[in-house]
Amino acid sequence: MASKTYITRAERRSVSMRGFALGPGRDADIRIADMSYGGCRIQSEDAFNEGEVVELRIIKRGAAAAEIRWANGGTAGVRFLN
């Protein structure tokens, strides 16, 4: 029987922060719903595309480059790049 390999995800924390997702042709208002050291889940009225790279600017927190890892309508999971 083959053994399964599991990838452990960093612990997520529930948050509610406002910000913006910026990129070529994109300036979207976002709300960050949960966050870990490696990424976060964002919600927006805009739809995102898997593989898209954006700059997340979180109000009163700073900015981070991020890649959209999955998207479903106005919700997306992102991985921080820096």
What does this structure look like?
By secondary structure, the protein is mostly beta strands. It has one domain (13-80): Thrombin, subunit H (Beta Barrel). Helix content is 0%, strand content 60%. It has a 6-stranded antiparallel barrel with strand order 1-2-3-6-5-4. Strand 2 and strand 3 (39-43) form a beta hairpin. The N and C termini lie far apart (39 Å). The mean pLDDT is 90.
Features of this protein?
single chain, 6-stranded antiparallel β-barrel, Thrombin, subunit H, mainly beta, 0% helix, globular, 82 residues
- Termini Cα gap: 39 Å
In round numbers, the mean pLDDT is: 90
Largest sheet: 6 strands, antiparallel, barrel
Q: What do we call the CATH topology?
A: Thrombin, subunit H
Q: Which class in CATH terms? A: Mainly Beta
How big is the Rg? 14 Å
How do the SSEs run, as a string of H and E? EEEEEE
CATH architecture: Beta Barrel
Number of helices: 0
Beta content: over 45%
The tally of strands reads 6
Q: Strand order, main sheet: write it out.
A: 1-2-3-6-5-4
Overall shape: it is globular
Query: CATH H-level name... which superfamily?
Result: predicted glycosyltransferase like domains
Helix content: under 10%
